[in-house]
Write a structure and sequence with these properties.
heterodimer, B: mainly alpha, 4 helices
Amino acid sequence: MGSSLGLVAQILPLIPDAVEALVKIIRVLRSHESTPNELKARLDAISADLDAACAKVQAVVLPEPRR
Amino acid sequence: MKRVRVMQAALSLALIALVASLLSGCASWRAPTLEATGITVEALGEQFVKVAAVFEKGCIEPRSISMQACAEFRDFGIQFKQAYPLLVGLWKAARDADDPQMQRSVTEVIAHLATSLSKLAAEGLDAYGRR
C-alpha cells in the first residue's frame, strides 16, 4: 500500500500536464477563426515555448549505467 | 495494485490521446494543426523531463527501478535528446515553409516518440511501484 501511494504521488503530477496539453490542443482545433496577426502571435509564443522545452530536455541527467 | 494499473493506464492514455487528437486534426485547417503540433511537441518535451526525473531518482535508489529499465531509458533518453531539437527545428521549418508534407512528417515523428516514451514510462513507473 505504501509503495502504491508512493507511485501515485510520482504519477499524479504527470497526468494533469498531459491533460492540460490535450485541452489546449482541443481548444486550438475548435477555435480556428482568428486574424493572421493573432495566429502569428500564437505561433511565435509556441516557438518560444519550444525553445524553453528544448533547453529543459537538454538539461536532463540520464541514469548512469550500473555495474 | 489495481489502482496503480489504473493510474498507469491513465498516464499512457493521456499521452496517446494527446497524439491521437493531433492526428485527428482536420488536414484542411493548416494553422490549427500546426498549432496543435507545436503544443504536442512542447508537451512531449515536458513529459520527458518529468519522466526522466522519476527515472533519475529510481535508478539511484537500490532496487527502485530495475537495471534493465534504467539502461533502456538511458538508451532512449540519448536518442530523445538528440531527436528533440531536430523535431523543434522541423516544426519551425514547417511553420515557415507552409508545407503539408513536412507537417505530416513532424506528426509521424511525434507519434513514434510519444509511443516509446509512454511505454518506457509505464515500465519504469511499474518497477518503481513494485519496490
